[in-house]
Amino acid sequence: MYLQEKYIMKINAIAMGILLISSACYASEQPISLSQQDSFTYEKVATFNDQGKIKTAWQPQVLDGYGILGHVVTSGTEVPKFVSVTVNLDELNNNMTANPVDFRLIKSFSGSDGEPVSLWHAICPQNFLNKGYLVTTAAMPNTDDVYCIAADLITESEGKWLSSHEVEPRHHKIISNDAIEPRLFGQDEPVQSKLRSLATASMMSSYTNWMGQLKDSTSIGNITIPGTHDSGAYRTSALFETQTWSPQQQLNNGIRFLDIRLSDKTGSSSDFELRHGEGRLGSFKDLVLDRVNTFLLKNPSEVIFMSVKHEQSNIISTGSETFDKARFYRDYILPADSRFYKSVVTGSTTLGSLRGKIVLLDRYDAVDERNQAINIGIKYPRSYFIQDEYNLDFECQDVGPFGELCGPHVGLDYPGKYKKVLKHLDRAWDNSGSANIWINFTSATYNTGYEIDNARLVNGRLKNKLNALAPGVSIGTIFPMDYPEETPGIIDSMINMSISAHGLASKQPVMIPNRSYDSISSIDGFWGEWGNIAKCPAEQYVKGYRLRSEPKQGDDDDTALNDIELYCSPLNSSGNAKIYSAFASWGTYSADTFCSGNNNPVIGFDIKIEPKQGDGDDTAANDVDLYCKSGVLSASVNTSWGNWSPVQYCPTGKAVVGIVTRVEGKQGSEDDTALNGVRLICENY
Prior knowledge:
- The protein is mainly β.
- 11% of the residues lie in helices and 30% in strands.
- It has four domains: 24-198, no CATH class; 225-380, Phosphatidylinositol (PI) phosphodiesterase (TIM Barrel), CATH 3.20.20; 405-506, no CATH class; 522-684, Vitelline membrane outer layer protein I (VOMI) (Vitelline Membrane Outer Layer Protein I, subunit A).
- The protein is built from six helices and 42 strands.
- Helix 4 packs parallel to helix 5 and helix 5 (451-468) runs parallel beside helix 6.
- It starts with 23 loop residues before the first strand and ends with a strand.
- InterPro entries: PLC-like_Pdiesterase_TIM-brl, PLipase_C_PInositol-sp_X_dom, VOMI, VOMI_sf.
- Residues 216-363 form the Phosphatidylinositol-specific phospholipase C X domain.
């Protein structure tokens, strides 16, 4: 059985057939007739040797106005006896089909005439798929040789294999591949899919100008930015490759951070060499800078963050290893028409001031044309704000009397890398709203290998984590990734976080800190259960509060903070509607404390929490301050043990309207801690 892969949409414009290299089945919700074309002729592409077996690749000959999803392969030199697939090219105008943006070489064979034969996989635009393959005897295929189908039209269910003799001329099921890596002419465990209704298909309108949906006032330290690691190392030797998409394709698919490694280009005084270790990857000007400039010219709402680092060989030098920093400034940054932003950038810099620019992330100690140190763009932050653990640890297993067997053949610690990503993510959350810029590399390697395996696992888990968060707060982090296309939807997750928090029409309620209840941080204390969310009446906002705390109990059990009550009122008038969540009942209340004047609601808080005391007396939360638009608001309390958290602010344009608290119930003769954690709810005002 030799199968050609494909997808099919439930529209009259697409016919069905058998496609190349299958490991999963796809079926329409009901039989679909061929559109106009009841039979096919085929043109031979090449005959080649596949592991000792002779096979022939064929190209279906289609009617005018139709396109194919892939080539057909048969055993020996037999001409296919079944119908194939055609796509009505009118659907290119309906966002249902698209041309590939590039191709990836899968494998090379020896042709019957001694010439090489190559198998290529189409690389589709974001949210489009093609599981078919093309065979060529010369160069890479043209992007208009084959077509991709909108991914949102496909969903999985169970199914079975079909061989070619089971396929009827006009009504039949569809074969395709859902494996992580294609197996040439083999059979994996199949998965059959049926089509989603066209009405349920939804895709982001554009990845090329998503920053245009954000407010100019948005601080860049509050934007979640998808990026790539070693952005220039695309479709190259396995020793150096980290990307499939070219820099141009990365930008088109929503990437806004490029990690660029450079050295002087041998024999050139007007360009630099893209590098990844020993790998020399081509012209920086042609492959990166010119593409970025053109992209920003067409999409002036966007900002490209470009990390530049001097890269040198670790083992063998095959050319220049220097980096003329003064020439880089003179030729690329200094000119009046340069798009590099020539001032200092921090996390507080607003998006509106940077649109259409390249923001340099300086990892090479930038100098001007006179070799004098300069301070532009973003200085690479101190290590606390970066997670870049790029070495994967190997795992070991016990082999009895022979001791331990260790190495990548046993296993690599991908979960350990993800834990580092998650820990850094939590740090960024705990410090949201600060002027810092957080960078969290998901990429890692073991001896210059296994990058794609790491990307699939770590990026996949990161996407699930981001999707589980409540909408409305962007975590303000740059995520440089390897192979982001291997995790469909991860770029969407990052972009949507920013748009939901800072979009021009964002009205989503936001919890601060914005995390699921099972993702506990030091701000949430250590013990107890979360109560119910309490919210102000409609059109009212928190403008005051009082605290209940227990005085010091000497040798007896201390509980410190027990309750927090918030007072709500309209923005421009007084009122005292009281709201509260879970609480304990030890201690006394402070005096009521209010923000001064009108239009001065609460927009943030911080909390003082005592660390765990081991065998000592635990108290957890001791104090809470609120932050009005005009400044800090404090209530009196009876204890002051612990440390203050970072201030948790509502997104710009939002104010506090609700509260939820975490309280430990009475412990009897054991240690009581009462109130442990607080979260506030923000809405537009």
